[in-house]
Amino acid sequence: MYVIEPVTTAAFTLRQADDDAKIECGFEPDLVAVAPEGDGLWGAMRLTEADGVVSVRFWVAPEQRGRKLGAAMLKAAAPPLFASGVRRIETRPPVREPAAIRAAMRAGFRPDSGVIRGGAYDGGDALGLGLLAGDGRGPAPRVLPDLAGGELTDGTVSLRPLRPDDFEAHLRHRTSPDVYSGAALPLPPSVGEVVEMCEWRAAVDWLLGRAALMVIDDGAGYRGTIGLYDVARLIGTAMIGYDLSADARGKGYATGAVRLICRWAFEEVGLDRVWAGTDVHNAASQAVLRRTGFRLEGVERGGLPSVDGTRRDTLVWATLSRT
Question: What is the DSSP string of 162-180?
Fold first, then answer.
């Protein structure tokens, strides 16, 4: 057990757990967060130290969730740990617990180990995050911000992050031949791949700044997806890709979605160039790009694979933030 002196904040006191404490948090806690009056147990932490690195597992009482308590607990524990000589603090929340990942990042922990297979406490995959004393106490920098208000909308279509409850609609959509035939690799995803994407991968990729996958919704539900991919914040570029179900085409939804995501990419993400690739025969997608200000830049010979092992040409389009 790693011992630190009690830390009192305006919201709670973080102190050593009593030896006889009964907490249904799934682990033996070293520290607990108690209410200012001392009569409520709000959270718990377990600290494991090895070679100057402290691994943290944390838990927040169900009735206290949504109050950013996890982040506050991590922030409170960090200074005394570093003061005691710890050189690094790390945590490995399960990838299926985006709230825990957000809490760690809000406390300044940086994703630095990627997805660790079997690295979570429950035997599932985890995301490795670490904090050094020099990182400061602010939130970890993020390439892709959350959507203000949870969505982007033009009054006709709305874009929102893909969620676990989108599974059935997403599976039905992505396994439709007229949708996957236009994918980078024209094959349907497996059920497991769709489950993974809906349950955690889309959310984790967003937090890591890799991609922002959004659902196109016309007010009646899921109509397709659009995403910002291959995000390179250092050089200010990203790619978009989009698809619609057959009954949603011809209504201007793709055009509206492309305009919304490009505006977000330029104004909120801070990119300078957004590009797209289309099959040379995909006239409908090319028309969408022309309507939204993209310019044809050329042909990428053999840009995409085909199922039979050959390569197919693609057209490269791009729009700039100042055009």
Answer: --GGGHHHHHHHHT-HHHH
Q: Are 161 and 151 in contact (CB under 8 A)?
A: no
Indicate if the pLDDT at residue 1 is higher than 70.
no
Quick one: which of 65, 52, 48 has its CA closest to 33?
65
CB atoms within 10 A of CB 178: 11
Q: How far apart are CA 78 and CA 90, in angstroms?
A: 10
Domain ranges for the chain, please list them.
7-135, 148-320
pTM metric for this prediction: 0.92
Fold classified for 7-135:
Aminopeptidase (3.40.630)
- Are 51 and 93 in contact by the 8 Å Cβ rule? The answer is no
Superfamily of domain 148-320 in the CATH hierarchy: Gcn5-related N-acetyltransferase (GNAT) (3.40.630.30)
Residues 13-50: tens digit of each pLDDT: 999 998 776 788 999 999 999 988 767 899 999 999 99
Mean pLDDT, residues 205-220: 96
Q: In whole angstroms, what is the distance from residue 162 CA to residue 209 CA?
A: 15
